[in-house]
Amino acid sequence: MNFTLKIWRQKNQKDEGRFETYEVKNISPDASFLEMLDILNNQLVLENCDPVAFDHDCREGICGSCGMMINGRAHGKGRKQATCDVRMRSFTDGETITVEPWRANPFPVIKDLIVDRSAFDRIMQAGGFISVRTGSAPDANSIPVCKDNAEEAMDAAACIGCGACVAACPNSSAMLFVAAKVSQLALLPQGQPERKERVQRMITQMDKEGFGNCSNNYACEAECPKGISVMHIARLNREFLTAKLT
Amino acid sequence: MKLDPKIPEGPIEKKWSSHRFNMKLVNPANRRKYSVIVIGTGLAGASAAASLAELGYKVISISYHESPRRAHSIAAQGGINAPKNYANDGDSVYRLFYDTLKGGDYRAREANVYRLAEVSGNIIDQCVAQGVPFGRDYAGYLDMRSFGGAQVSRTFYARGQTGQQLLLGAYSTLSRHIGAGTVKFFDRREMLELVVADGIARGVICRNLRTGAIESYVADAVVLATGGYGNTFYLSTMAKASNATAIWRAYKKGAFFANPCFTQIHPTCIPVSGDYQSKLTLMSESLRNDGRIWVPKKPGDLRIPSQIPEEERDYYLERLYPSFGNLVPRDVASRRAKEICDKGLGVGKTSMAVYLDFADAIKRNGKNWIEEKYGNLFDMYHEITAEDPYANPMRIYPAVHYTMGGLWVDYNLMSTIPGLFVIGEANFSDHGANRLGASALMQGLADGYFILPYTLSDYFGRTKFSSLATNHPEFVKANKRISEETEKLLAIKGKQPVNEIHKKLGKVMWDFAGMGRNEKGLKKALKLIPEIKKEFWSDAKVTGDSDNLNIELEKAGRIADFIELAELLAFDALHRKESCGGHFREEYQTPEGEALRDDKKFAYAAAWEYIGDGKNPKLNKEQLTFEYVKPAVRSYK
Fold it and tell me: What would the CATH number be for the domain defined by B267-399?
């Protein structure tokens, strides 16, 4: 398959950035999107050009490193896919593909398609944990957890922290990301002691980082590679309100 | 140098507890005077950094990733072992110890393996308390599954994402400490040199991958938790950035490298489909609980699998190993798959695959049941191959997955350089010649949560440290060397992108030092690898500059180290004239094609010592003694 690529190139944070156009040829339909970019980068290196920088690592959709807007959609048009899961057979031969980094103020571009997502880490540092000391845990089976709750907690915990929810949201809201963690820990008995403090601290940090609010657009759920439901945002709101009121 | 594993005296069940009692302690008020650098934030690194901070030490955590949560532990799928015996099926610490030692084909240190089994139960407790959403039964208690090499159900899991959930648990604890300021985290830094001053490890030199700056970090001890070296083979199930630079640089500074030839080839991966391929994807071993492995009895049988009748199929693992069946250990399953395909019985376009079939399980328990258990794995398979594994069997083939070898450590997890500790996959300690499934997560967390916090305290308590800053001559020297090396890479200005050279190296390694090894092939590899090294340093093309983010430069440095490590790996494989676990020398096998160990000559860990470029490394032996589990022919029949 042959493709024309319009890729966002930006040398560093200060650079203004621009689209550059490239051609790639004879791409196997079984190749992944990132493998197609590898082939392009090989070409660029041979032409003495700077290869396109992008974050990636596990290439099996779990580490959350990769993430780009492909034809205007976070991780491309497929459902429940990270960028590394996208295969070239999902495009048509000869297609022009536009590739951009996540666009959100709290995620400044570092270079080309790489953005700085450390805001997510700071939200986690503010409260996305249970404060248990190493060595002080009781026997695992002394805390039974109702299976339904455990399953729902796992649904939320599947978040890979890629930032697609923020990139897809017209408000650059991180509420699905925050909700996933708050919801997971609120559903489990282990998460109860810090439940109220956790949600308030995480929301405060989220606001401080400059993420917007949820206006029920639901693009986050649609683009989430793990299909995390906006129901968790409803729980986040409830948790926040309850914590504030009591 | 005489290798002293420092195994404590006493019966095996008492060794760890009496050792802990005999250790030096550091008074809580004095702990803030000690500092430690932890490289890597996977299960081992994150759990160690958080636990050490909790004790009160000053912790510097360093990763080449943007965030600790990206470490490759996140990709582990199937589960984590612990002898809780919740299944009431006869499990015990001793049985896990026995299974692990036997699974490792009697090439691990008994005392370490026993301790691993002993502390593994606490890991499950710790992770549950952190909010890890393990799979549960309808009563709300923890559910278990079984894994290769065991006949009990001791594997705890969180769907097919156990590694992710355990890592996020450790990451959450680490984040708590970063937020509280008790751990300082440095992102996008690659360790390029270990600094040894007055004979002890005192710091590291890193390249800031964002700015290109060469930075010095000083502390009282250094912990490497930098994972394995599977990417030496280019194609593997490892993440793209996983590399051996940290352990390799430490090796060149005097840390011994043990058993580099013990590499694990995982039997159930999605087969290679083309030369554009950048990595291989694993299908969790847990699938072997319900999937049956087979090939058609007739070579070149091109019928679609469902049309091949039962009697024309060869369920070769069930036939050869009736008691373990599809759940034989990884090395055995991989080797048998290769053998079957080499005989021309393989399936699929390339004939380099076997079927993993779920038809019986779907018939027995329904599609929903399979979906709940393995849904994400089936989706992943579907996405990659565009085939529906619910309707047709999966096609699988072995791929490089894990490396049991690594830097040599004593019972305290300290390398041959005082003050340099090595934990998780980066060390060689617990898995012998073959790791059992669901044991990597166990070892990483055992080292980080429950072993290193004790042994590092003991080291601090016993050692006098002089105060030292980054202007110390050793730091200045190392800094200069790294800057020069970076410029040297950029100055090659050859014709080949570094990735292409890495592919060549990978092919040599897979062909001659992969699943089946022999003297002729290994000698050939040892001839070809230096040629690749020469090619790299004369013809590699590294574009860009050193003073900014440069992905080609990052790769180039890592590949240069892989090439050198590959040579050591082949050298070790050539010297070990026996077959054991993942190291299968074709000359040494039983008439039935099983690995033939030579306990008289090779019951030792081969710890290689670097004595200079272009010189053969020096072999140091740690003799392994087996007081409790007598080495026997490993039988899974």
Answer: 3.90.700.10
